[in-house]
Amino acid sequence: MNMWVDIFKGNKIRRILYNDEWWFSVVDVCGVLTGSVDPGAYWCKLEQRLKKEGSKSVTNCDWLNLEAADGKQYLTVCANADGIFRIIQSISSPKAELFKRWLAQVGYERMQEIENPELAAKRCRALYRAKGYSDGWIEKRMRGIVISAVLADEWKDRDVGSSREYDILTAEIFKATFGLTPSEYKNLKQLERENLRDHMGDLELIFSMLGEAATTEITRTQDAQGFSENCRVANKGGRIAGDAREKLEKKSGRTIRASVP
Fold this sequence. Notes:
alpha+beta
């Protein structure tokens, strides 16, 4: 998201957390990209044109309460990240053109990664290095991603049908491993939208991997089918990691959940 940061740096783009995702002020984005003295009027004209073209970016907008310059809350047209990207693609300005080229480059890179998944792993490692993570931590994080993917494939083949069920099963493993749900753990670490595992230390990642790897093994040996059976197996797999964590904490006198990368 470097291009997003470069274009909007120093400019206030109002946003609000709505339905568990960020929504941004469309007028603010139009103002930053066009430099218009009346970004509201610019958006009205753009909205009319997009409606005539049948663009879905207009229908995907919503009116949400945002704080204005006078400190009061007013209903403001907002869009989520996907909607904002679509709107930006319809704006004619030098800054918008920079953003469009960046989006095209990102799309090209994603196509490359689909054809060669190893590229995605290399880019992911490079991103973590740029953020200051150690090589040892990165290898654990990458291995954890693979283990999670293997478990997800097992669930897919065993009649676990929806992403919501995947989330519940993952949370079941997590709670049995660490004694907290993922949301409770994020609160413990004072995280909001950040990725929880990116804020885990080495041992936390190891126990996360153990819980998911154990669940995969039990799922296969017991041939668990359907959501209910896999939920029970998820608890068993997580409990194996949880027991190991508790033993280590007792021997070391240190709480694993307090570790940081």
